Amino acid sequence: MSLISLKDVQFSYGDTPILHGVSLALEQGESLGILGESGSGKSTILRLMLGLTRPDTGVVEADGSVLDTRSRARMQAHRRFVQPVFQDPYTSLDPRMKVRRILTEPHAALDLPGDAEAEAARVLEAGGLPADSLDRYPRAFSGGQRQRIAIARALIARPRVLLADEPVSALDLATKVRVIELLTELSRELTLVLVSHDIAIVAALCPRMIVLQQGRVVEAGKTAAILRAPQHPYTQRLLASLQHMPMESP
Amino acid sequence: MSLLEVNNLRVHGPARELVHGISFSVEPGERLGLVGESGSGKSLTAMSTVGLLAHGLRAEGSVLLGGHQVIGQSDRALVPLRGPVAAVVFQDPRSALDPLMRLGDQLAHPIRRRAKREGRSMSGPQLRAEQLRWLDRVSIADPERILTSWPHEVSGGQRQRIAIAMALACGPRLLIADEPTTALDVTTQAEVLDLLDTLARDEGLALLFISHDLPVVARITDRVIVMQHGRAVEEGPVRQVFTRPRDTYTQGLVAAAQQLEAAVRGMQ
Amino acid sequence: MKKTTLWIGAILVGINVVIALLTLVWLPYDPTAMSGGRLAAPSWAHWAGTDRLGRDYFTQVMIGARIALTVGVGAALLGGLIGTTLGVLAAFAQRGFDDALAATLDILIAFPTLLLAMLVVAASDGASLGTAILAIGIAMSAIIARLVRILTKRVLAQDYITAARCSGLGWGRIVLVHVLPNIAPTVLVAIALQFGLAVIAEASLSYLGLGAPPPNASWGQLLQSAQSTVFNAPIGVIAPGLALMALVLGINFLADGLRDLLDPERGAA
């Protein structure tokens, strides 16, 4: 049984079609990269998976049943099942809340088991942040640290799926690599959906990937196979567009 | 004589010094990259060379642009240098273009200024021919339509191409490009880099290229300065710096970039 | 520098507040009794002289401070409350309702406060403190609502709101714990600035006879009655005029100082 699946999903924003019949499935332990450029509809797929919006036609299934965004009970269960991490670490934390409150907010609202304070300490450590972070405001942290706080917040619900929207593209290179390492570590416990325009990050984190172009899945399969032998011309062009580090001259 | 000669440049912010004495030069036709992470002072350094620092920032030291001192000059004195000597392309092509002016009219400005400077008069048909020639130079398809379009009607990649056309139409000898491909999609980035490469070669342009992206810098420049916290920590030919870095900070950057690349290479 | 304006503002407003509170328990003279000669010049006994009926003028100016602050605070509370509620609702509203509300607010803002006040007075049984508060508060609420709507929309577009939704918070709680605290600094400063305008509006209303009736005379009314004797006894215009200016200036300084203090980027961590 898939963790999350989209079946022939169509979606429009007003009169603008965004997704044209997208189908995909996320399997347990097989993190999925959704590769696409701006306007490909990749963020819309994430919003559908989070239950923040409904498809025009088609079905979103999660944890074995259709995701009914109108049912409060179903959505509360879904919130414990999937949690998001966003691109911009500067807008994803409320500037007027201390880290303690940011981390414990979902604990209370989702009625999670365990002691909130102990859970906050647990996810803080899992996110690789010092324990004294709890009593500080987001502005005391760098972009990379903020992203770790956002990841820690997502972990408090002990979700089975982590949906990450360009989680490292706003970060500096060295920070980026460290956050990727953190996500790699986390992906042993939970399954990632990673939305990105950056092939390197998808390659680093996801054994499976789909390539999205203007609201259509043009290629899907094992990441290694697609990178080795891209079938669709668009995927070929994406790969050819990569810039490379110079190699040591012999 | 160097086209650009920077000597012990310091940039002061309202509270503290942000660039702590950097020196380098750019020879005609040379391509220099300024690499660093956010807050390294790379953009401040580049903007100081054309006297375009934001309000509240102050530069000190010496910047000779085409033989003229830039530091301490009034904006009016710098206007004749911007364009004929150096032109700038910015990261966000949306804010670099006037949203209330048709693209053709915006492109006409630098063309007319250059003609006036060179004492040529420019008739309507001549101007139009020049506009079309520049759009063709930056590989814009359908130039007739673009001339009458508004900035919001074209894609980000096209906007950046037009920004480049406007910069080059001034006839500069040095093009300063501040993260010009960062806001673009991967495929568009590759096209714009190819374009800059070709144009720089054909026009004999010198390039001062600012970026945090090591592979991009490697693609477009010959020599690179690595900046950290307002200081140059390493300088040298790009291949040498990116394959055998000496400074520990550069080593960290290069290792991180290689680690990212290894993920893709490892699978291919 | 910024701290100085805050302090000057706090002192000017503070003096007015102290005087206003003092009038509740003590006055130098009975404001309705003749306590000196008519139109007497300022003296030790009568700091601001006397009016045409020989009543102590300083006492009346003191009472004016109470009226000004009552109307100002009342209008600010009313306008702030209605405006914030409407603004948040509009930010959440579906397109049609939002547009209708935005248009209504624009009309209300374009509508002169004085005209609105006259309508309110005409609709109730005569001018009173309450009508002044109501009229000024309604006018103020439109301006606050428009601001709150834009600020709320901006906050709602932030990722931390989406994160809160995914954390299982309902919209009501999101407004309470995320939206209101984040828009509060800007809205409070706007309300403080409107407070200053409300004091002036109250003075204008009572100058036109649409404010509180005597003996609770406000500064506007004092100005109006002293107008005919301005050449014989200029103090009659100067005293309430200065008082009005000091209070409004103080409020504006205070609002400016608050703006810097509440700036989240520079506030205390």
TrEMBL record, chain A:
The lineage of its organism: Bacteria, Pseudomonadati, Pseudomonadota, Alphaproteobacteria, Rhodobacterales. Keywords: ATP-binding, Nucleotide-binding, Transport. The keyword Ion transport does not apply. Gene3D superfamilies: P-loop containing nucleotide triphosphate hydrolases (3.40.50.300). SMART domains: AAA. GO terms for molecular function: ATP binding; ATP hydrolysis activity. GO terms for biological process: transmembrane transport. This is ATP-binding cassette domain-containing protein. Residues 4-239 form the ABC transporter domain. InterPro entries: AAA+_ATPase, ABC_transp_ATP-bind, ABC_transporter-like_ATP-bd, ABC_transporter-like_CS, P-loop_NTPase. It comes from the Bacteria. Pfam families: ABC_tran. CDD domains: ABC_NikE_OppD_transporters. It comes from Paracoccus aestuariivivens. Belongs to the ABC transporter superfamily.
From TrEMBL, chain B:
The keyword Nucleotide-binding applies. One of its GO terms (cellular component) is plasma membrane. CDD domains: ABC_NikE_OppD_transporters. It is found in: Cell inner membrane. InterPro entries: AAA+_ATPase (IPR003593), ABC_Ni/Peptide_Import (IPR050388), ABC_transporter-like_ATP-bd (IPR003439), ABC_transporter-like_CS (IPR017871), P-loop_NTPase (IPR027417). Keywords: ATP-binding, Cell membrane, Membrane, Nucleotide-binding, Transport. This is ATP-binding cassette domain-containing protein. GO terms for molecular function: ATP binding; ATP hydrolysis activity. It comes from the Bacteria. The lineage of its organism: Bacteria, Pseudomonadati, Pseudomonadota, Alphaproteobacteria, Rhodobacterales. PANTHER family: DIPEPTIDE TRANSPORT ATP-BINDING PROTEIN DPPD, OLIGOPEPTIDE TRANSPORT ATP-BINDING PROTEIN APPD. It is a peripheral membrane protein. Residues 4-254 form the ABC transporter domain. PROSITE patterns: ABC_TRANSPORTER_1, ABC_TRANSPORTER_2. SMART domains: AAA (SM00382). Belongs to the ABC transporter superfamily. SUPFAM superfamilies: P-loop containing nucleoside triphosphate hydrolases.
From TrEMBL, chain C:
GO terms for biological process: transmembrane transport. The chain crosses the membrane at residues 7-29, 67-93, 100-123, 129-148, 160-181, 231-255. It is found in: Cell membrane. It is a multi-pass membrane protein. Residues 65-255 form the ABC transmembrane type-1 domain. SUPFAM superfamilies: MetI-like. The keyword Cell membrane applies. Pfam families: BPD_transp_1. The keyword NAD does not apply. Keywords: Cell membrane, Membrane, Transmembrane, Transmembrane helix, Transport. GO terms for cellular component: plasma membrane. Belongs to the binding-protein-dependent transport system permease family. This is ABC transporter permease subunit. It comes from Paracoccus aestuariivivens.
